[in-house]
């Protein structure tokens, strides 16, 4: 059961990521580069801290592994496309600067705590704080989608992320991997909210078009 769930998680994330990159290359969507820098940074810290925790395993937190690969792949794709179009510009707003500062703070705290309570325990604590930071980071995306008139995200990709998060919970629960369960639950909730907000934009746009006929 766990092996099937791992396979489904991986395949779903790969399909969602490739589709998102295809949309970026075709200029069907134009995501904000700084948002993906935040996602990539927090995902990487999350996986690094998880891998240093006492109960780490590829199966137990397959969601985090596929998530960080996906985020970094999309970050590279967005950067390359914007660079080729001579549109590459990195401007962090105050909220994003605070998120990066918080990520740096987690790394510094981890480095200090490892000498007091041990690296594995310090890494587990850092992982929990990273998940909280990811939730805070999603607030910016949620706010942007809530106020948007046009959809700037991929419904298919975010639906794939949601399904992958659900699939990743299975091996995490089987292995009683608390950090894996935390990641899967967090990813499922935040991606589900993102899917809802995208659908909200699409439905609102369709209703406006219907009213104008």
Which class do the helix and strand fractions yield? mainly alpha
Outline the low-pLDDT stretches. Answer: none
The fraction of residues assigned to DSSP E strands is: under 5%
Number of helices: 7
> What's the Cα radius of gyration?
18 Å
Overall, the morphology is globular
Distance between the termini: 51 Å
Return the domain count.
Answer: 1
Q: Tally the beta strands.
A: 0
**Topology as H/E string?**
HHHHHHH
What kind of oligomer do you see? single chain
What is the helix fraction of residues, given as a range? over 70%
Average pLDDT across residues?
89
Largest sheet: none
Helices and strands in order, then pairings?
Layout: H1 2-25, H2 33-51, H3 62-84, H4 94-117, H5 119-147, H6 155-174, H7 178-212
Helix pairs in contact: 1-3, 1-6, 2-3, 2-4, 2-5, 4-5, 5-7, 6-7
Key phrases:
about 210 residues; mainly alpha
């Amino acid at each position: 059961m766990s092996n099937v769930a791992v396979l489904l998680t991986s395949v779903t994330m790969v399909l969602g990521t490739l589709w998102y990159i295809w949309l970026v290359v075709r200029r069907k969507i134009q995501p904000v580069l700084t948002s993906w820098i935040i996602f990539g940074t927090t995902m990487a810290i999350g996986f690094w801290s998880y891998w240093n925790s006492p109960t780490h395993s590829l199966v137990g937190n397959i969601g985090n592994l596929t998530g960080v690969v996906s985020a970094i792949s999309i970050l590279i794709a967005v950067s390359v496309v914007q660079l080729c179009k001579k549109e590459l510009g990195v401007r962090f707003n105050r909220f994003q600067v605070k998120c990066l500062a918080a990520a740096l703070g987690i790394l510094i705290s981890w480095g200090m705590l490892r000498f007091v309570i041990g690296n594995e325990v310090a890494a587990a604590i850092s992982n929990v704080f990273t998940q909280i930071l990811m939730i805070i980071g999603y607030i910016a995306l949620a706010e942007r989608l809530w106020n948007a008139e046009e959809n700037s995200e991929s419904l298919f990709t975010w639906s794939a992320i949601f399904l992958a998060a659900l699939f990743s919970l299975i091996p995490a629960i089987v292995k009683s991997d608390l950090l894996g369960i935390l990641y899967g639950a967090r990813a499922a909730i935040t991606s589900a909210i993102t899917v809802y907000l995208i659908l909200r934009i699409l439905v609102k746009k369709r209703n406006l078009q219907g009213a104008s006929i």
